[in-house]
Amino acid sequence: MNHYTPKNFMLTQTVGFALVKARNLIVAEMDAALKDLDITSQQMGILLSLRQGSATTPFELSKLLGIDTGLMTRMLDKLEAKDLLERSRDAEDRRVVNLTLTEKGVEVAAQIPEIAPDVLNARLRKFTKAEFEELNRLLRKFSGD
User: Fold this and answer.
1) Distance between CA atoms of 55 and 49, rounded to whole angstroms?
2) What is the CATH number of domain 15-143?
3) 98: exposed, middle or buried (C-beta count within 10 Å: 0-12, 13-18, 19+)?
4) How far apart are CA 114 and CA 56, in angstroms?
5) How do residues 98-119 score in pLDDT, each as one tens digit?
6) Are 119 and 80 spatial neighbours (Cβ–Cβ below 8 Å)?
7) Domain boundaries, the chain
C-alpha cells in the first residue's frame, strides 16, 4: 500500500519529517543533560555500547549506532582526547582496532543511566504505558527489527 502520492505529499506531514523532528528534540535535550559530563548524546551511545559490550571496534560501533566510519573516527578521537577510551591493535589481526573504556570512561559511562532516563521520561510523560509500548512496537516495525 502506498501511503504517499504526488498529490498528497507534503514534506512537513511525512513520517520521515516527524521522526527527524523527534530525534532532534531528544538529541538537544540529551546533550543539555549530559553537558556536565562533557559528552554529547552521540558520544553517550559509544560509551554505553562499550560499557555493555555491545561493540568493541570502530566498525562494530558504526554498524550498531548507524554512524558512518568517518564520523565515528572523529568521535573516537574526541573521546580519546578526553581520556574516556583507549584504542589498541588486536594481537591476532593488526588491522583490527579494539576499544576499551579508561577508568575515567567507566566512571562517566556509569553516570549516564542516572541522567538519560529522566530526559526520555520527560519527553514521554504524556504517553500511557500502552501508548509507549505501541510506539516502541511501531518503531521496531518501521526499522525492520
Assistant:
1) 6
2) 1.10.10.10
3) middle
4) 23
5) 999 999 999 999 999 999 999 9
6) no
7) 15-143
